[in-house]
Amino acid sequence: MDKRLAGHSFHIPVMGISFTIDTPIKVAHYGISSVISIVDDILVEKMREFYASSVGETFISISDKTEDFRAKRITAYLNLVDRIVKDKFDNLKNSLVEKGSDIEKYMDLLPDLSGVKQKFLEVSKQDNIKELKDWLNENLTPGSIDVNIMTKLDKVNYANGEELPSIYNDAHAALRGFANSTLESSVVLSAGMNPRLYGYIEQFEDFYPNEETGAIKKKVILKVSDYRSALIQGKFLAKKGIWVSEYRVESGLNCGGHAFATDGFLMGPILEEFKNNRQELTNATFETYSKVLQTKERFSPEQAPEIKITAQGGVGTSEEHQFLLDYYNIDCVGWGTPFLLVPEVTTVDKHTITLLVDAKEEDLYLSNISPLGVPFNSLRGNTKDIEKLEWIAKGKPGSSCPKKYLVSNTEFTKRAICSASRQFQALKIKELKREGLNEDDFTKAYDKIVDKSCICVGLGTTALINNDLDMKEEGDTVSICPGPNMAYFSKVSTPDQMIGHIYGKNNIMERTDRPNMYIKELGMYLDYLKNKIAEEPTPISPKQLRYFNKFKNNLMSGIAYYKQLYTEINASLVPEFNEFEKELCAFPLFREENEAILN
Q: Going by DSSP bridges, is the β-strand pair 162-163/145-150 parallel, antiparallel, or unpaired?
């Protein structure tokens, strides 16, 4: 049987800090995999107290005075989530004889072609409850409770004024928290390679295959934006004896959260490269992996473990979903942003849900608010931005920086601080005033400084609001980071409705003018390039000109790929790609070079 037909062919990626903080508790027992952010141990601890109370467990607080408290908090929360999901899943399997039971819902949510669903219907016809229960115990599985670590969020920590060893850095401690948990799942490593963190993975037993079955209890998923990055990182980890079980390909711009734009490489050609080089990726990493395991005197499998290739970013229709599965042989498709309008799946406060429902294209924009200096997808009118503007109007820009997860700037201080903090912005504005700029230049520079927002707090607040938890330190203002796809989803939905939409059983999208996901991404890259060129001082340096031409050529190559692809499978999109090509060639910076093409 095709492995993609075994269960669900979608997963729910990490969204922000709090939006999927408890999603596994809500959906994992229905066989749906999702990802928890473990960046914020303060939020994690509050959520552990909330859920321990809800299931009648005794909660013992882990103080920030406790040694290794960050890792211990994360482990404790993940263990609690694991127990809750296992209990709910056991109850689901035991609900077999009940009318309208959870087991019926589990099956109803699956795609019609699911092998599990078809086999269940076949076995249930035999009217043998014991045999059916035995089959369920052998074949039914909950969704994976995966975790996400942004590799760059690896802040150095201190105790009694002394710098702690690197294993107590934020990302290292988060990894240890996951590694020491009872979960049998995956860690999603995003935001690029962190060699020291990657090397730390080999310290934990659960990331190696066991001798009995060769199974890996805790797996590694790499979120990547291109094939070259996947190959480099896969080889690096293989040299540590660590296998990458999944490469999660995400659109550079047509996504939620931080946007790690490529140099004009588009999603379709990137997936084509993965499709054509999948076996090469396996071979290139397995030989090294096997030798390293033998050197470490560990069990080394005779055959390469499975590698999955998944994709996410801007998918919005069942046709796009199925196309990715069929044409590129993708194992699973990530659906993130649309689930922000499904309260039974994600955690979003009522006010922010209203903003999302009403959001149009112009309300969803690529901002510069992130202290990481990476473009960040944002929603106009979110309450965190309103609060930020109020502080600016009072002449006190910046945040009090209560959590300090994004501290990275050492421009003014020996110990890193956050560029969204009041401390940094006051120092930066003081420096700016000494430069003697004219009014226009001063205003532009000032606005750029105060634009940074305290997203490490804002992205976690919604869970506190929804669960009526203490917000004294954080406040009650919310940041949110939907992808541009949100403009085309405009009503609150149930899990049944959203999952039915994914599988083509129904349609929850009221607008009929949504562009194809590839068209949307291409338009975003063209706008991105135009903005980059506009920001560049004139005359443009030869180095930057070479970069812009490289970017343009990559876009042209992508357009040619799409024109060929859609000529073969669906010619209706070709005229749209032709228009993008003309617009790109006609851009002033490239016009002279492309006169021959235009004529």
A: unpaired
